[in-house]
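Quick start: what a row looks like.
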Amino acid sequence: METLREVFSSESLTTASLVLLKMGLGVVLGGMVGWERELHGRPAGVRTHMLIVLGVVIICEVSRIFDPVTPSRIAASIVTGIGFLGAGTILRTGPEVRGLTTAASIWAVSGIGMAVSTGGPFFIVAILGTLLTLATLTYVEKLERRFAPDTHPRELHVGIDRKDRLTALLQALENAGMKVGAVRVLGEEGGVLLSLEVRGASSRGLDAALGSPGVSSARWHE
């Protein structure tokens, strides 16, 4: 009975309410970042980011009870653990490395979770940090495409009559000074439709693709 009185005392209920508020805010902020990643088809989406922030908030709150003198030890452990989790989203496909931005977003939301757990003025830090993270994920790439289009990879859709033409197509793009990353087959009806990640001058890449043997169509996919 004494334990129940402790649990349902006004002080305990106030503490629990504050922690629940932090958990709710953390889930919302993490979900916002995760939704942006979900829209771009990345491996870590809404649920992953929400759970990361939720877990970070709970661990930080409990660490104040377990180790009230040096809670920074728990924070350091969170950073290490999140590093391993983020590494799981990084994939290497040939010369291309994918998932680095998603791994960075996971690191960012873990920091947001710590800020939410700290509370007080750090609520504002967490909210502004979320907005800055979303702005970075959403608008920086658009600025790169606008002001440095030749250095940013673009997706080129190419139609060829058969698969064995791919080697000649890649050679033609390379001769034009283009760098080709991932290659995917989108369809094989009436020929083969390919998706290529290409880096380099847009006009040269399109001309090189159209001039390659067996190519029936080529266009940039926005």
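That is the whole record. The longest helix spans residues 10-39. The beta strands are 91-93, 96-98, 154-160, 179-187, 192-199, 215-221.
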